[in-house]
Amino acid sequence: MDKVVMVGVFDFVNFHVCKALLDKGIEVRGVQIESEENEDIVREKRLEIGRNANFTEVSLGGITKDKNENETIVLSVYDLYMRYKEEYLLNEDMLFNLIRKIQWEQIVILVPSQLLNEVIDSKSEVIIEDFIKRTHVHNKNIHLLYLPTIYGPWQPDTFMFQSSILTEMNRGKPFRGLREETGDALFAQDTAQLIIEIIENQEPGRYLIQSGKSNQWEKCAAFLRINEHGLNRNLQIREEGLTKINVKSTVPISVGLTMQIEHAYRIYSEKK
Fold first, then answer.
1. What is the pTM assigned to this prediction?
2. Mapped to the 3 state alphabet, what secondary structure does 179-202 carry?
């Protein structure tokens, strides 16, 4: 894997994957679907990448116009879901045709692990499930990587952890409701490394990225003094054809969440 197109490059998980790819010397062409809501955050992320010769920011139209050979495309449906933007998947001229009309070396879709549940009933989950099915009709060779709660620097305030941190800073907005999966939690940088390893070394298929440990989300909530009573939603996972891979944890929960807290204070203090 030498070249990657990242759709939603400045979204939470995709941004961590982008930085990990650049650290490996892999060329990245990134497109942000929209950024009007969080222009200050996007500006900070551009500064964090800096002047990297391997990174180019392009438009959606630019991707189809200037298609390079041997490119992998990474689409984070996970980030769209956590930003309440899954309706973009309904636009045939946007994401679906981008994946369908170009011969990609690999197609990688990051998916919230709730989509592994035996019962898919919410409107947002149905939209995502339908998008994946339609994509599979045109290309069977897709890496579907299912993710639980991801935490760390740049986590959006649509996650309970970041919402709690910003509330402590008196910078919080009204919480829209629990959307993340509460059965597991992974540190963003560790997850990004494993995502790249799977893309490079594993065949297309369905992969659940997990901690391999019990009560990780609850331990994170306890560290942040969140009352998690009644929040645990156990998934009835569809196991058929699913490969489970454990993340290699490099930092304890307390260290990862402290990094997230310190980052939030730095970013939001500068915005005052």
1. 0.93
2. CCCCCCEEEHHHHHHHHHHHHHHC
